[in-house]
Amino acid sequence: MASARDIKSSKDVSSLNTSQNLGFSTSPNASFQSAPSSQGGSVFATPIVPLANAKHLKPFATEDIKVLLLENVNQTGREILSKQGYQVEFLKSSLPEDQLIEKIRDVHVIGIRSKTKLTARVLKEARNLIVIGCFCIGTNQVDLQYAAEHGIAVFNSPFSNSRSVAELVIGEIIALARQFGDRSNEMHSGTWNKVSNKCWEIRGKTLGIIGYGHIGSQLSVLAEAMGMSVIFYDVVNLMALGTARQVPTLKDLLAESDFITCHVPELPETKNMIGQAQFDQMKDGSYLINASRGSVVDIPALIHAMRSGKVAGAALDVYPNEPAGNGDYFNNTLNTWGTDLRALKNLIITPHIGGSTEEAQRAIGVEVADALVRYVNEGSTLGAVNLPEVTLRSLTMDEPDHARVIYIHHNVPGVLRKVNEILGDHNVDKQMTDSRGDVAYLMADISNVDNLTIKDLYERLESLSSRIMTRVLY
Fold first, then answer.
1. For residue 356, is pLDDT > 60?
2. According to the model, what pLDDT value does residue 27 have?
3. Alpha-carbon distance 218 to 9, whole Å?
4. Domain range holding 109?
5. Residue 28 is assigned to a structural domain of this protein
6. Within this chain, do residues 343 and 361 fall inside the same structural domain, yes or no?
7. How is 339-389 classified by DSSP, letter by letter?
8. How confident is residue 380, by pLDDT bands cut at 50, 70 and 90?
9. Most buried of 64, 351, 417, 472, CB within 10 angstroms?
10. Does the active-site annotation cover 352?
11. Are 445 and 430 in contact (CB under 8 A)?
């Protein structure tokens, strides 16, 4: 059986051996932001088990799928995509914007981590792009609104490195309480300084977690197992794990906690969430850890709080401005307070390594690559951060004359009536649609179709004024 392929645009639709010409159109402004809570529900909590005789749909000839992976995406992800027969180009680093624009023009799939910036200017040049994979938690490096308006799905990995970050924070809590960093630095310089003054056990101390999401809740369990009392603050009411308890305000958490750790997304509401006013509300001699986003903590205010003794120690893994690559770049040119920060005592500063473990990177590679394959081959948007989450059960090998129609469109009145007028001449086995803001996503499986029928369906859907992107899988 020949490999299944997508249909080209109407000007060359008779040729089924070449890639789809994905034209773009505009839509009214939409806003796609992270959920207000740091607690995200898992879309994979009830996974769809693939059928044993599932029919493998392909939107293009497999040799035509072009994938660009940047920033040293883990080998597990590369292997999953390569085994699909896609053309995978792999680079270890990010690219400057002009070089990225040249590279992205012909690719259908791009995989990035946190340093590649997919702005509207870059995405405008990506004429064949259908999906973006962020091999990390964050998606703020992508213009989600522009991507949605042009039918480009965005996937990330919200769960896979949660344990790695939680373990890093536990290690930092112990290291700060015992002043490991200072003693190690002194020993490296030849100084023996055996002291117990202001060194503490963490047992019996209170840990305050700001943001009780995937990382915060795991950290809660680990800290409690080590004898800590755990409180947390979140913008919504959440079920506590173990004996942890939620406090009603951030001020309450700051006043009660010996150790405070931040696990919130980067939003306007979280910018400088911990500043001078918040340091004043903290206990004297408390500790601060930030492994979330660099914009959450006002660094000059932290420097002042540590110099005054209000804060006894801190650990930072993220910063307002971070280098694009490894090297001697963490200096005052990057952040004007760099020298002052590095001069502080009992301070742990790490280069954004919270999720940088072999286990986490392998898991992220699998999670995101699998999501990309499901979207390219089946059209499933489960886990997409900027499009409605829509899926249908797989077609099977017992359904050889079936096709899956995907119609991404502006969410305006009357669209479904027009679409169903086109599909209504055929047997629609199953159909699902959903909307998110100004963008809607429709999937329908139709039976008893051949290439000429698919060509006609595609052209008629493409002609609708509501159309953002049409895909036909068979």
1. yes
2. 28
3. 48
4. 53-156+357-387
5. no
6. no
7. HHHHT-SSEEE-SS-TT-SHHHHHHHHHHHHHHHHHHHHH---TTBSSS--
8. very high
9. 472
10. yes
11. yes
Residues 216 and 330 in one domain: yes
Q: Quick one: 217 and 267 in the same domain?
A: yes
pTM for the predicted model, two decimal places: 0.79
User: How does pLDDT run across 383-406, given as a tens digit for each residue?
Assistant: 999 999 999 988 777 767 888 999
Has residue 20 got a pLDDT over 70? no
| Catalytic residue chosen out of the listed positions 167, 224, 256, 322 | 322
Could you tell me if 65 and 82 lie in one domain? yes
Strands (DSSP E) along 63-180, which ranges?
66-69, 87-90, 109-112, 131-134, 153-155
Q: Is the pLDDT of residue 266 over 70?
A: yes
Look up residue 204 and give its two tokens. 């019996």
Identify whether residues 150 and 234 lie together within a single domain.
no
79: Cα separation from own chain's centroid: 20
Q: Which residues pair with 69 in a beta bridge?
A: 90, 111
Is 150 part of the annotated catalytic residue set? no
Residue 147 contacts residue 386 (beta carbons within 8 Å): yes
- Burial (Cβ within 10 Å: 0-12, 13-18, ≥19) of residue 49: exposed
Q: Are residues 104 and 177 in the same domain?
A: no
Q: Which is catalytic among the residues 78, 214, 293, 471?
A: 293
CATH number at residue 314: 3.40.50.720
Say which of 352, 362, 426, 460 is annotated catalytic.
Answer: 352
Specify whether 402 is catalytic: no
pLDDT at 450: 85
